[in-house]
């Protein structure tokens, strides 16, 4: 374990995890995360960022257009347990993904729970994807990507696209995805102490803010989805995360469906560690592997 990783894990455990455990209201978490990312996670100077709306069939989703690459389009779905986070909080990370891979990114502000519970987020992601197609963007040039809850949302969107017979994207990236809202995976118990960011004590409470019906609906828990004929998928997951099994079981599910899956397993790495690129060598290494994955043509 590198020195930087030790320091980051210490700070996450003693600052971020404690704050998430102690903060009761989503509005308070949103304010804190907005402030943190505004202070410490700036996109590079000169990054092209503009506000847009992605509209389709009478529905509209606000987004940030990040970068202006010619290598394709990325639809990015931010993390935050479906109750916090935004395109703004993830600008630096999305800008890095876009610049590294010569992409134009659309990072959407999907509706958040508890004000707008399931299926608001998946409906917004579906609207955004269809809006890109309606602009004449070829599905085969689109990468769907997301982290944490957004990684699960990306996989749920893929399930929906396949189920409805819509053109499939080129590929998909999921960083530490949450894929099973039944909260029955063993890593929630095994890694409760080793997890440095997410307090397992709050998982059921937050889940219940998001989903009022069946937690096995594949649009909420993509682990229960169908992925025959899905494009290649890249999943990163840490060995000490409480969501470890959400990621690893998703890998098994996809491979059983004949999907080409690249899995990046991080030893002792925190939840969504690529977010800390430029600060953490392990994050930079994972993003190099993402570059290699995206450089391969889709089958």
What do you see in this structure?
The protein is an alpha/beta fold and 299 residues long. The protein contains nine helices and eight strands. Helix 4 packs across helix 5. The protein is 38% helix and 16% strand. The protein is globular and about 45 Å long. The model has no long low-confidence stretch (mean pLDDT 97). The protein has a single domain (3-295), classed as Alpha/Beta hydrolase fold, catalytic domain (Rossmann fold). It has helices at 3-22, 26-40, 91-100, 120-134, 149-163, 187-190, 203-210, 244-256, 281-295, and strands at 49-56, 59-66, 73-77, 104-108, 142-147, 171-175, 233-238, 261-266. An eight-stranded mixed sheet has the order 1-2-4-3-5-6-7-8, sandwiched between helices. A hairpin with a 2-residue loop joins strand 1 (49-56) and strand 2 (59-66).
Q: What's a concise summary of this model?
A:
With 299 residues, this protein is of the alpha/beta class.
What does the secondary structure layout of this molecule look like, with pairings?
Layout: H1 3-22, H2 26-40, E1 49-56, E2 59-66, E3 73-77, H3 91-100, E4 104-108, H4 120-134, E5 142-147, H5 149-163, E6 171-175, H6 187-190, H7 203-210, E7 233-238, H8 244-256, E8 261-266, H9 281-295
Helix pairs in contact: 4-5
Lateral arrangement of strands in the main beta sheet: 1-2-4-3-5-6-7-8
Taking pLDDT < 50 over at least 5 consecutive residues as the criterion, the unreliable ranges are none
Average residue-wise pLDDT = 97
Shape: globular
CATH class call: Alpha Beta
Strand tally: 8
Number of helices: 9
Distance between the termini: 36 Å
CATH fold topology: Rossmann fold
CATH superfamily: Alpha/Beta hydrolase fold, catalytic domain
Order of helices and strands: HHEEEHEHEHEHHEHEH
Helix content: 25-40%
Determine Rg (CA atoms, Å).
17 Å
- Output the structural class: alpha/beta
- Give the total of domains: 1
Please summarize the sheet with the most strands. 8 strands, mixed
CATH architecture field: 3-Layer(aba) Sandwich
